[in-house]
């Protein structure tokens, strides 16, 4: 039981800015960190729920005295803060890489654009579109919809890391933090994460949420097939790109299903 709790805390520790002092001594070197991280992968949906609780909490507090659109924007800002910008950088870097690849058709230009420390036009546009889409959807659905959506969409996003990591590998020229996930996500991790993501979202939003999760899974599998065909697999930035795009797809699907089913 203690081991499971430790793995859950490690998943939150990696995916957010929160640190747990009691766990600091466990990482004695790189190998220990990698092992701890790989054991925590199966609990990424729970870490997503933790993020969602923070976002929903921020929204609930500010919606008491601010309009819904303003409260939603503050919740989105808190997403950046609570995750330390994690996955936003992957979204922007991969978008820049895609633009370079579309212009040249060369894989090496894609890789170079991802590694570039400067954010290009495509990267900035991708982040702005992400914020705009999430903001518009959450602002137009009412208080209840916004609250439960804020709780659930980080779950779908973090689960996408598990899906991509289980089915894909990391090519030699892309090796980095992404390798930890693609080499450390086994069948058990995939099954546990799938059950957790499905149960959490179903309990929050019923079949509307569950069907939206399925749509996001189909999208992420399609994206993974594209990554595999064009680039031979995924790296850490591409996993981050998968997180943010799957969140958008989940939210778009949820708008439709929520109106029909809920």
What does this protein structure show overall?
- The protein has 262 residues and is an all-alpha fold.
- It has one domain.
- Helix content is 80%, strand content 0%.
- It has eleven helices and no strands.
- The protein has helices at 2-15, 30-40, 44-62, 68-83, 88-104, 107-115, 121-139, 142-167, 177-184, 187-231, 236-261.
- The longest helix has 45 residues, at 187-231.
SSE arrangement:
Blueprint: H1 2-15, H2 30-40, H3 44-62, H4 68-83, H5 88-104, H6 107-115, H7 121-139, H8 142-167, H9 177-184, H10 187-231, H11 236-261
Helix pairs in contact: 1-2, 1-3, 3-4, 3-8, 3-10, 4-7, 5-6, 5-7, 5-11, 7-11, 8-9, 8-10, 8-11, 9-11, 10-11
Task: Give descriptors for this structure.
262 residues, mainly alpha, 11 helices, 0% strand, globular
Alpha-beta content class: mainly alpha
Shape: globular
Low-confidence stretches: 23-27
Name the average pLDDT. 91
Q: Could you state the order of secondary-structure elements as H and E?
A: HHHHHHHHHHH
How much strand? under 5%
Number of domains: 1
- Spatial extent as radius of gyration: 18 Å
Number of strands: 0
Terminal residue distance = 36 Å
Tell me roughly what share of residues is in helical segments: over 70%
Largest sheet: none
Number of helices: 11
